[in-house]
Amino acid sequence: MRDTGKPKAIVSWSSGKDSAFALFKVMQSGEFDVVAMLTTVTSDYDRVSMHGVRRELLLRQSRALGLPLIEVEIPAKCTNEIYEAKMGAAMSRAKASGVEYVIFGDIFLEDVRKYREEKLSGTGISPVFPLWGEKTSNLAIGIIESGIRARVSCLDPEKLNRKLGGALFDRDFLDSIPDNVDPCGENGEFHTFVESSPLFSEPIAISVGESVQRDRFLYTDLLPS
After folding, report:
1. What are 40-68's pLDDT values in tens digits?
2. Domain-embedded: residue 1
3. Could you give the C-alpha distances from 184 to 118, 139, 169, 193, in angstroms and in order?
C-alpha cells in the first residue's frame, strides 16, 4: 500500500448511493487514505447481497473508482455465525495490511450502528459514519446534486410501486414515493446501483432488464452494456 501519511481506510461498499455518497464526502474531506472497497457477495447468485447487483457491475465500479475490491462471499441462506466469521476474517486481513478505519453509509438506524461498533470493538479498526444524523430528505437531494447517478435495483413492492424497479434515483423518483417511505430507503424500502459518480473515471453503461420477485423483494436485473 502507498504511504500518504493519512490513516488508511476501506469503504463498506453496497454498490448503492449511500455508500457512494459516504465515500464522496470522505474523499472531499481528505481525512483518510481510502485504499479498498469491501462488499458482501452472495455466491449462489453471483450478486451483491441485498442489492441483487451482478458481480460484473460491481467489478466495473471497482475499476471506475480505481480501488481494489475485497469480496466477502456468503451463501444465500447465511447464518449470523457464518457472516460474522467471514467478515471478521476480512477485517483481520485489512488490519494486517495497515487499515485503521472502515467507512459506512448508515444514516439513522441505531441498532445497525451499534452492531457495527460492537463487532469492530477490539479489532483495531474503527467505524466512520459520514452521513450519520443527516435528515434523509436533505441527504437524498444532496446525493442527486453531487452528481451521483443511481438506479433502483431492488424494492419492497408492499411499500413502492413495482414500476419503480430500475428507475433513476432522481427528483422525479422522490416525488413519486409515498410519504411513509424514507427518501433514502433507509428502512429497506429500496436499494440502488450507482452507475455514475464524480469519483468514477467513467460512467458504467447499463440497460434495465426484467424484474423478478424473490421472497418479499422485487429485484430488477441491471445488465452491463
Report:
1. 999 999 999 999 999 999 999 999 999 99
2. no
3. 25, 8, 9, 13
